[in-house]
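Researcher: Last one for today. Full complex below.
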Amino acid sequence: MPNHKVTEVVLLACGSFNPITNMHLRMFELARDHLHDTGQYNVVKGIISPVGDAYKKKGLIEASHRLEMARLATANSDWITVDDWESLQPEWLETAKVVRHHYEELHAEDHNKDDVDTVKHGKKRRIDENHSESSRHQKRKDGPQLMLLCGADVLESFAVPNLWKQEDIAEIVGFYGLVCITRSGSDPYKFIQQSDDLWTHHKNIHVVHEWITNEISATHVRRALRRGHSVRYLVPENVIDYIREQRLYSAESERKNSDIVLAPLQRYTRASSSS
Amino acid sequence: MMVTRRVPLVLLACGSFNPITNQHMRLFELARDHLHGTGQYQVVGGIVSPVSDSYGKQGLALAKHRIAMAKLALQTSSWVTVDEWESQQPDWTETVETMRYHSGRILKELGRKLGTHRDPDGNTPPLSSVSPQLKLLCGADFLNSFKVPGLWLDEHVEEVVGRFGLVCVSRGNLQPERAVHESDLLHRHRHNIFLVKEWVRNETSATEVRRALRRGLSVKYLVPDSVIDYIHQHNLYTEDSERRNEGTLLRPLIKQAQPPGKSLDD
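Model: Here's the assembly. Have a good evening.
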């Protein structure tokens, strides 16, 4: 009987979710299947954390709407939840800070939470109380490992000047871990290979190949909505109803923030020019 | 004074629907938006017509299940319905026959409705001017199927494309324009072939869905929840089910391998 050391994992996805689409939801399903398949992990929870309005991305509508749509979309999921902490912060927060916050939250409620078994076929497993090889980088002995879930485009955004702080990237990839879903047209392996920093922690970067190519981008969804085209079957029904009722996503909403610089770029450009 | 009215259309999709996916249903939505955008057409209905079991395609689940799943998937659609006629025929039915059947049925239904409507002069408007046109809705890979030897009879392609018309939604890298260009027959009827570009690459093929299901992987958000539940309840799509019809020739290839001159029509 093999001695399984299975680590509990919580997946955290940060992003605009403007609006949430079936593709976002698929990412969670794919990541869970992939991690479970390694035999080393058991994904117990998924968290969607929509970015705050202070991010100032072009076309970003109010967080209250984005939260509500995400809640509607995950209403029938037994493991994916929506968290509003990030969106309630007055200023834009670096992803690393959001990850840290959720990590602390998870370990604070550690002793009270129930084990939610999201594994479809309910295998019996033994949870290793000691350090396992794979979770050595997370200092706490018990409690789930928190991993950042993202598309390959986020991984590649690490290279955009002033968008990320190098120490944040190191922390996310080195201490927590990344689950990266490939989108066609990107080669995450190559990208990791070409960066010394990423390569050092490549064992913490789980690349998940999306064989069923699914490029439902929220940008495309907003475009279709502006033009009065159908987005049925790209976005959950109840989200479509909400968008219609609230009259979200018009040419006007897309122009929001068009003359403003993205918050991280503002912050880091200022910092680098003053140092 | 001439009033240009939009031509009413009904879109018919034939296929295995093994199982039906969000992508299949997207085809209808995309086609409708595109046709409305031309300003000339009004899509008034959509029909999903799953193929009968006698098609003999490998891995084909029983028609009763494929129909049930399609019905579940389309429960919330206000304009697309599932039709069982094709699946109930004793043998595999040529697409052109299915089109003739639906076209006739639509005309008859309209005739019944208009029977009581008369214009000020006491005449009923000519059916041909108001009857919805039936067009075949398909993906770009379907255009390439015309090239497969023995799969289609030339006169059937002529009727499907020439008399009825195609609405073809392009998927991924396939180039429907090229397929039309490379076939003299299709080229001749190019004005009756509507090419709809799907800018969002959404390649949720039923083959991939079945593969994922066989491997116990999630297909949530690719296929409606109600369909997933049905699949699990009936344990469809296993390694065994995928081997069904293995080694068997597709029915059209057998049925249509007749000496020239022999009629295949009733």
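The interface with chain A takes residues 22-23, 25-26, 29-30, 32-33, 76, 172, 199-205, 208-209, 211-212, 216-218, 220-222, 225 of chain B (CB under 8 Å). The radius of gyration of chain B is 19 Å.
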